[in-house]
């Protein structure tokens, strides 16, 4: 079978099915990304995890050293960038500075063989859709950050791609613009029929824009699922910090979990290797050792304090690293200072344990 683009249709699969292997001297990316038509998947991960490399490999800008890419059943692995039916939005938008917004958007359809008039009609329709019809003649230099982002999105969508790739699409915007543009982008993504992959550092962008998260660390997928699934059962320190939880590996025996020298009482009944997670708000701090059970209790050293409005996050080191959220009033009352020793405890009902 041959599809419209003249390439062999190798399967009847829909959406994106990719196994990306990119080997470099000091880095190896090896991950599988599956995205259904109409689905938005966010690739999240720390610096250097391989997010951009994965996106560039999907686009054909970085060659694969193994694996392959199917898009709508077509094998794209050896198809050159310009024939991939892919739309891309980069962090800094990469608009052509000497062309008007309209010509920037018309560029893709033109490259696909549309007549000049037809390409401009398509571009105008897209600029109207993103609310920029009135700025069609403006060069990128006369657009605000939010407007340039919308032109970049219109340009990516004007080629009617089957796959949309967004690399930190909101990173260049100030906080206020980001809020509105994020909401608009979500609306456009909901209307887009193809598969979308978005790379972001920002958990909020990921949660608002994506149906599913794929967390990458050191070139591999460490966790994937909906934001709620990932947040509920983080499997690495990075994910735990992302969702604001304290996370430890331990050994469970019934309701007790041994984490180093500390025993946590947990509500779950488990055996063998487990994770124990609890939010910083579940940690209580005391100047002297509180009476009662020695479980869920440890002596720590204050490593640092961050103040946020009425609250403070206290970073603890000692037998286990942990964060505690307390009120500014409690901070003053306990006279907490970096370097000071303190007792920390956490309620069993606020810990959550699950198999590792
Ligand atoms: N062109 C290149 N040549 C060689 N190594 C590269 C190249 N680009 C990236 N790398 C390396 O590949 C690894 C993955 O980089 P990549 O940019 O994909 O990570 P990332 O997750 O997008 O990070 P960031 O969030 O910092 O953008 C890093 O170790 C990086 O130093």
TrEMBL record:
InterPro entries (alphabetical): AAA+_ATPase, ABC_SmlMolc_Importer, ABC_transporter-like_ATP-bd, ABC_transporter-like_CS, Mo/tungstate-bd_C_term_dom, Mop_domain, P-loop_NTPase, Transp-assoc_OB_typ1
Pfam families: ABC_tran (PF00005), TOBE (PF03459)
Superkingdom of origin: Bacteria
Mop domain: residues covered: 291-355
Gene Ontology biological-process entries: molybdate ion transport
Enzyme class: translocase
Name of the protein: ABC-type quaternary amine transporter
UniProt key word Iron-sulfur: no
GO molecular function: ABC-type quaternary ammonium compound transporting activity; ATP binding; ATP hydrolysis activity
Keywords: ATP-binding, Molybdenum, Nucleotide-binding, Transport
Domain ABC transporter: 11-243
Residues annotated as signal peptide: none
E.C. number(s) listed in UniProt: 7.6.2.9
